[in-house]
Amino acid sequence: NLTRLSIQISNDSLYVNTVQDSIGETLIYLSATDPSLAIARDTFQVTINPVNDAPNVVNALRDTTYLEDFGKLFVVLISPVFHDIDNPNLSYTAFNLSPGVNPHITNDSLYLISDTDFYGNVSVKVSASDGSLSVSDTFMVTITNVNDPPQPFSLIAPQNQDTLPGWNDPVHFLWHKSIDADMDVLTYVFRLFGSNIDTTISGLTDTNYVFNALNRLLPLTAYFWTSIVSDGFIQAASSDTFQFNTPFLVGIEDDNIAPIKFAVHPNFPNPFNPTTTIKFDMPNSSNVTLKIYNLLGQEVRTLVSGNKQAGYHSVIWDGKNNQGQAVSSGVYLYRLESGSFTKTMKLMLLK
């Protein structure tokens, strides 16, 4: 049976050569003839038992390139990549050799799923197995960087619908920091607008701005403010626009007129970063202390200690302790004591 074997006699030797991947049984017929033409015949059977062959790669996987954050994409049908002479029903697995891209097999299809914000090169290995033996092929996935916009951020202070303690005092504006997935340098634009003003300040690298309101804001007037962040290519506005109000004109403090009672006012801005102003009123001259404490009752900073004249007073806390070191973010207490008068209020440092 020449479809399975080839037979060759050389001198006194019989050779049998198998055809690749042939299996089964074959009868071999032999005959011998002498000079008188007498013939002798014999028959024997050759049985070729199957031996498992490993799968092999017949169509190598090709390297491929995608843009960042592509989501889920079909790559290739797997069965044409591999072949097994013994078993057409192969099982397939796939995994990445480094993070960034996750391969996934559904039926005969290979998919890739991207990791958020990843770009770079990832090797993906695909294997085929017949249950005993396996073969693998590897291809390179290149993810090209795409510029991501800065993430949305929100405003902090002055809070929406706040009323300023004074309409001519500096106004401390504060907003949250935006995050950029590409680690680009971010800059901010601050905008303040209202009936008599529309001011834009660009190129800010900090998340705060102190506006000099002297003779620029009107009393008893609503104003609006917002901020925009840019990575140099894409801009993103804050998620909100806040309104604040200025007080009525008669609320202006007159240093020549003493207040009628002790008072401690809410600090402004609150929350704050890096500074906040605390105002207090004194109807007569006396010794006064104004101290900052943490929530454990431990003294952090002494802002005022000594005799003060009757009148309206203000002091600025720069977020540092008595040793000149910047304190951590959190809630603090400020307490004013003068004679029998004591008042404690909360403030928040937000970095």
List descriptors.
351 residues; mainly beta; six-stranded mixed beta sheet; four-stranded mixed beta sheet; 29 strands; 52% strand; rod-shaped
Task: Give your account of this protein's structure.
There is one protein chain. The protein is mainly β. It has strands at 5-10, 13-18, 24-33, 39-48, 56-57, 64-67, 72-77, 82-83, 91-96, 101-106, 109-114, 120-129, 134-144, 155-157, 162-163, 171-175, 187-194, 198-204, 208-211, 222-230, 235-237, 242-245, 263-264, 276-282, 286-293, 299-308, 311-317, 330-338, 341-349. Strands 15, 17, 18, 20, 21 and 22 form a 6-stranded mixed sheet that branches. Strand 28 and strand 29 (341-349) form a beta hairpin.
Q: How are the secondary structure elements laid out?
A:
Blueprint: E1 5-10, E2 13-18, E3 24-33, E4 39-48, E5 56-57, E6 64-67, E7 72-77, E8 82-83, E9 91-96, E10 101-106, E11 109-114, E12 120-129, E13 134-144, E14 155-157, E15 162-163, E16 171-175, E17 187-194, E18 198-204, E19 208-211, E20 222-230, E21 235-237, E22 242-245, E23 263-264, E24 276-282, E25 286-293, E26 299-308, E27 311-317, E28 330-338, E29 341-349
Parallel strand pairs: 6-13, 15-22
Antiparallel strand pairs: 1-2, 3-4, 5-8, 7-11, 9-12, 10-11, 12-13, 14-16, 16-19, 17-18, 17-20, 20-21, 20-22, 23-24, 24-27, 25-26, 25-28, 28-29
Structural class: mainly beta
How many strands? 29
Continuous helix count: 0
**What's the story with the biggest beta sheet?**
6 strands, mixed
Give the overall form. Answer: rod-shaped
What's the helical proportion of residues?
under 10%
Low-confidence residue ranges: 250-254
Mean pLDDT figure: 89
> Whole-number radius of gyration?
42 Å
What is the ordering of alpha helices and beta strands?
Answer: EEEEEEEEEEEEEEEEEEEEEEEEEEEEE
Tell me the distance between the termini: 88 Å
Strand content: over 45%
